[in-house]
Fold:
Amino acid sequence: MTSNDKHNISLPLFLFLLTIITRIPFTSKLLYHWDSVQFALALDKYDITVHQPHPPGYFLYVMLGRLLHLFISDANTVFVSISVIFSGLTVVAVYYLGKEVFDRNIGILAALIALTSPNLWFHGEVALTYIVEAFFSTAVALLCWRILKGEHKYIWLSVIALGIAGGIRQNTTVFLFPLWLFSVKGVPIRKSFASLGLLVVVCLLWFIPMVWMTGGWNAYYSAFRDLWLFNTGHVSVFEQGWATFKIFSSSLFKFTIYGVGIGIVILGFVAYSIVRHGKFKSLDRNKVFFFSVWIVPLLLFHLLIFIHPANPGYVLFFLPAFFVLVAASIEYASAEAKQFLKIDPLKFIAFTIIILNIGIFSYFKYPISYKAIKNHDMDLLIMLNGIKTLSPENTILFVDGDIFFCYRHVMYYLPEYTVYQPELKYTPSGKLRKIFWGVNRETHLSDAVILPAEITKFGVLIIPYNNVQLICIKGMTIKKLLPFMYLVSGSVDKLREFYPQSKITLHGNIRNGLK
Structure:
């Protein structure tokens, strides 16, 4: 091995280890999100029909978790470990992408921006899939760039990576496919079709066992259809109008800012300068189309179809592209400024962005900060301890649909309680979704709330910022757990007042409600 080879390996290894070291002290200690708990439940029983995990399945992510679960007992630690490792891999992949699309200096700068990105950093600390998607998105993009530059041998590795990415998050393959198609435009047609065949095989290798473990195609399709009908299928701009577009666009912009910080200002300035001075035609067309085909499909989906305003991880799919573009923009802006300032401000600009990114993650109360993780862990413990004041032997619980403090958290950490998600959802045609509930870490679906004879009390966890009004009914006990959270409890004979008959039907026998 030559000294140059050692240098080429040592820098990516250093970036990987540095990323790991900066993640370990800040990891979440409890399952962070509704989805996190569903991944944890899937470690013991994989069943998409009861959202363990939710559709479309995340099969390879859960199976990787099961593999680590053989050595790590705590479910949160299992999935956080995956996030930490893939944080390091993503930063390394960003370095290589920047290096090959532009040059080594831009690769290093892009990697440092990625390493300190609050959004990327945050998702390297919690049990969610987005950081894994960020890695595969970057890795596939890197392989696509090599194919685009004439290295057609990478086409086989690209489709393998594309297929595995789909097993982690099914949407990743869909939204990366246009980039792959663009990259293979110079590949012989037979080779392209053969590689598509390999992609199908790779996808089937995880899709078939996923459907089988769900209970067959009908069960899988039904679960996927219900998720679309009751959660994401009727919230698009086309159905909800301008108000929804404002929510989607502001969320998308905010999440991107969380990713690149003030680097977005540099990127915007450079884009304006290029257009203003008529330099657009001098840009490398392959690079322009490469980044456009990577970013635009998912960008349009989130602008027009769906994005959850509380999930900044959605943008991690294309955030690596922004890391590289911001790094290139810093170099461009520095070269332009050097003509007037007589000094090169590149290091100053880069240092400022990196320091501000570190500060945002470490000290501010943004949703993608260490404080958000630490506060969530503390608040969740307070919530669980508050619930423990009610007896699981004679109390039934109802927990509203907040994604950070949900019935899933109660199900997982307090398995002795019977807990319901009382949220009622209807399709436009009037179809009512089955009610989710659980006990002993087993999830059930029913058409009604089940009230066994031994149940004499009920408790309701209310989070007012979810637009749920605190209902005061005579004879109820109201306990404030947190500034935004109340535990209301009382005798079951008050339950019909709390949940009117038109919304919740009670049964005396547990078998009556099960379907």
In short: The CA atoms of residues 451 and 508 lie 5 Å apart. The chain has a mean pLDDT of 91. Residues 388-513 form one domain. The beta strands are 395-399, 418-420, 435-439, 442-446, 449-450, 457-462, 477-482, 485-491, 506-507.
